[in-house]
Amino acid sequence: MSLSLAQLFRAAVMIAALLGLAALAPAARAQVNIDINQGNVQPLPIAIPSFLGQGGDAELARNIASVVEADLKNSGLFAPIDHKAFIEKITNTDVPPRFGDWRIINAQALVTGRVVRQGDGRLRTEFRLWDVFAGNQLDGQQFFTDKNWRRVAHLIADMIYERLTGEKGYFDTRVVYVDESGPKDKRVKRLAIMDQDGFNVRYITGGDELVLTPRFSPTSQEITYMSFGRSEPRVYLLNIETGQREVVGNFPGMTFSPRFSPDGQKVIMSLQQGGDSNLYAMDLRSRTTTRLTDSGAIDTSPSYSPDGARIVFESDRGGNQQIYVMSASGGGAQRISFGEGRYSTPVWSPRGDLIAFTKQAGGKFAIGVMKPDGTGERILTEGFHNEGPTWAPNGRVLMFFRDQGGGPKIYSVDVTGRHERRIPTPGFASDPAWSPPLN
Fold it and tell me: Domain of life, per the record (predicted)?
């Protein structure tokens, strides 16, 4: 059996191992081939009945299953089946389901689970993933938590995603962004952080100073961002877990777009001096700063390649904003964008295969991707004002912000461009940045 999903996953995924909980299925082996044809995405039909729970935990069990279902659906690669179509009612997760009942409704994968309250008050959440047509268990695991049940749901979704696609999931992650409130001419901007699906929002700065361009470290739950207080603009490091904040450095002139190196040991940024803006890298251990460009132009928005060997950035050295790539140590830069319009905010994919960008042409702002040599440019979405792409840690989904006149809002789109949705936030939101996986 062959399913066309997207030209984004490996051509064949062997699904035959028995993992996690007790082995309940027969020794049959099945091969599910996921053929990858860009632009012809056929989501995998999957059934996710409500998890079982006793007493006051029954609603919580249903909520966990609902979050798992939403995560998988929002990826664009899975098509959860309507619960009204279910024939079998799952009452015991310790026995195999009646696979024939699930084949009738064309479910190709099935997820069952339960929540059990432990004697110490903790919740134990179990799930099993079944290959319906082969009639065997593919995966299973249990998680213990005191209260963070949403994270348990994201972890389960990650395991299912990885088992059925061969790719790492991205659901157990967070996004930091700039929350915006108040009148348009007097916006209060503060840093906020949320789960990747828009839940569990909390604010991490108070709004008494202007904050811009938050960026996560790829190795830790730490961010770097710009702050404009009463003194000169400063670049800060902030530990999300402890709340500890420190100044990276006080630089003369304006500072823009700080971003971590892949190993988290450096911050690269743009410093404006006079009419020019050049790129600098600061070693966070020694606090030494190295100048990387000296072009007499505006060089900004630098982003490292995943191996740390190269940098992509935007520059107007050729007359208008375009994208360039150079060695991480500086030197000659190669222009890679040659389409009509202006290119900005380039960000290298964690996979290394693509560079995302903002493109302005014909009165529209587009979010697109191209290969690191500039070939294969594709526009994923466009509109009145789209800007600021950020990659999910598996390199398969982007977030960005869009302002259609009322105020900015955050959206996500996958790299096929077919699956776009708005991420809910309490107020206006801009400049999202995706975290590395929490686990």
Answer: Bacteria
Q: Name 215's bridge partners.
A: 224
**How far apart, in whole angstroms, are the C-alpha atoms of residue 355 and residue 337?**
11
Give the pairing of strands 386-391 and 397-403. Answer: antiparallel
The pLDDT value recorded for residue 301 is 93
pTM above 0.85, yes or no: yes
384 three-class SS: coil
Q: Write the CA distances from 421 to 71, 198, 402, 412, 413, integer angstroms.
A: 12, 12, 11, 6, 7
> Could you tell me if 75 and 15 are in contact, meaning their C-beta atoms sit under 8 angstroms apart?
no
Amino acid (1-letter code) at residue 188: V
Q: Of 372, 290, 282, give the one whose Cα is nearest residue 335.
A: 372
Cα–Cα distance, 335 to 354 (Å, whole number):
15
Q: Which of 20, 70, 19 is nearest to 46 (CA)?
A: 70
3-class SS at 412? strand
Low-confidence winner among 17-21, 50-54, 222-226, 392-396 (lowest mean pLDDT) = 17-21
Per residue in 284-301, pLDDT tens?
A: 999 898 999 988 889 999
Mean pLDDT of 210-237: 84
| Confidence band, pLDDT 50/70/90 cuts, at residue 219 | confident
Tokens of 265: 């040991």
Q: What pLDDT, in 10s, does the model give residues 264-281?
A: 999 999 888 777 889 999
In the numeric block, which tokens belong to residue 263?
């190993």
